[in-house]
Design a protein that fits this description.
heterodimer; A: about 220 residues; mainly alpha; 9 helices; about 0% strand; globular; B: about 10 residues; 1 helix; rod-shaped
Chain lengths: ~220, ~10
C-alpha cells in the first residue's frame, strides 16, 4: 500500500471520526445532511458485498467493517436518537436524493466491467459515491452558520478522494496497474465536486474567518 | 482476475 492510499483512507476515517465527535460530544447533527449519510450507507452496503467472500487483508476487512458500522450508526443517530434528531435541519435538507440513485443504477447497468450482480452493484457504488456529497453541499450553502466540525468533516471527506487520485496515478506508474476507467473517472468527478468548497474553506482558513459559502 | 485485483481499495 502506498502513502497516498494510506493517507486517503486515514482522512476518510478522520472525517467519520469528526462527524461522530460532533454527534457524541455536541449531541448535534446541525448542518449535516441525512440524505448524504443515507447515500453512504447504500454506497458501503453495495460495495462491500465481497466482505464475506473475498479476503484481501486484515486491514481491508477491518476498514470495511468500520465504514459499514459507522455509516449505519450515524444514520441511526440522526433518525432515532432523542436529542440528536431534534438538531437535524429537516426543512433545509430537501435534496431529492433518490433522484441520484436511479440514474447511477442505470449507468451501472450500462457501463460496467462485467455484467454480473456483484460487479454491477460495485460499479453502482462508485457512481453513487461520486455524487453522494451533493445534498450535503446544498445544505452547507443554505446554512448561515457552518461550525468548525462540519466544515472539517466535509474537508476531510473531499481530501480522501483527492488523495486516492494520487494513489491511482502512483499505482499506474509504479505498479504498472491496468487502466481502470470506472473508478478513475468516478473519483475525478467526486473530487471536482468539492472544488468550490475547497476554495472557500482554504480562503476562510487563511483569513481565520468563519466558513461561509456564497448562496 | 482484473476485476478482483482492483477491489483491494476501499
Amino acid at each position: 500500500m502506498n502513502v497516498f492510499r494510506l493517507a486517503g483512507d486515514m482522512t476518510h476515517l478522520l472525517s467519520i471520526m469528526v462527524l461522530l465527535l460532533k454527534i457524541h460530544s455536541m449531541k448535534s447533527c446541525a448542518g449535516i445532511s441525512l440524505k448524504t449519510q443515507e447515500l453512504y450507507v447504500l454506497v458501503f452496503a453495495t460495495r462491500y458485498l465481497d466482505i464475506f467472500t473475498t479476503y484481501f487483508s486484515f486491514y481491508n476487512t477491518v476498514m470495511k467493517i468500520v465504514f459499514l458500522v459507522t455509516s449505519f450508526s450515524i444514520v441511526w443517530y440522526m433518525r432515532h436518537h432523542k436529542v440528536v434528531r431534534q438538531t437535524y435541519d429537516r426543512d433545509q435538507d430537501t435534496f431529492r436524493h433518490h433522484l441520484l440513485v436511479i440514474p447511477c443504477f442505470l449507468l451501472a447497468l450500462l457501463i460496467n466491467h462485467r455484467f454480473t450482480v456483484r460487479e454491477v452493484l460495485w460499479t453502482f457504488s462508485l457512481y453513487l459515491e461520486a455524487v453522494a456529497i451533493l445534498p450535503q453541499l446544498v445544505l452547507l450553502q443554505r446554512s448561515r452558520n457552518i461550525d468548525n466540525l462540519t466544515g472539517n468533516y466535509v474537508f476531510f471527506l473531499g481530501a480522501y478522494r483527492g488523495l486516492y487520485l494520487f494513489n491511482w496515478i502512483y499505482r499506474y506508474m509504479a505498479e504498472k496497474s491496468q487502466l481502470r476507467w470506472i473508478p478513475w473517472i468516478s473519483g475525478l468527478v467526486q473530487t471536482a465536486l468539492y472544488a468550490d468548497f475547497f476554495y472557500y474553506y482554504i480562503k476562510s482558513w487563511k483569513k481565520r474567518e468563519k466558513l461561509q459559502l456564497p448562496a | 482476475d482484473h476485476s478482483i485485483a482492483s477491489k483491494d481499495e476501499l
